[in-house]
Write a sequence for this structure.
């Protein structure tokens, strides 16, 4: 299977998962779940994303991908001094996808989050 951006594979796997859930196909529900888990290994984690990133399977699908993450901030002395929590939504657009990021924009963090998620979702994969 040729490589394609992760956001396309993730979306199509979610659609397949929903179809299998509707049909009661437990074997493929498990296989699609494992595939999603493997793709999420590419999601932002560490380097401030110390709690990692999760996908909200209840609201993600063909028309949007929704992720939950948090960022662990440091002060000017290099000490951790708080968290900001964020919901990142990717919706289809003519050029690929549009990102929206909820939560406080402490220290301009939303720009870094957007860059990290752009890299993550555009990762070429054959998974």
């Amino acid at each position: 299977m040729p490589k394609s951006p992760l956001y396309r594979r993730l979306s199509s796997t979610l659609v397949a998962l929903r179809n299998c859930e509707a049909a009661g196909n437990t074997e493929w529900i498990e296989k699609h779940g494992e595939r999603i888990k493997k793709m999420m290994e590419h999601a932002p984690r560490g380097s401030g994303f110390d709690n990692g990133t999760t996908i909200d399977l209840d609201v993600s699908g063909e028309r949007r991908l929704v992720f939950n993450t948090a960022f662990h901030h440091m002060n000017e002395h290099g000490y951790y001094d708080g968290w900001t929590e964020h919901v990142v939504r990717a919706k289809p657009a003519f050029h690929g996808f549009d990102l929206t990021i909820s939560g406080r924009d402490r220290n301009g963090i939303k720009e870094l989050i957007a860059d990290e998620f752009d890299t993550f979702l555009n990762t070429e994969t054959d998974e």
User: Anything to note?
Assistant: The two ends are 9 Å apart (CA to CA).
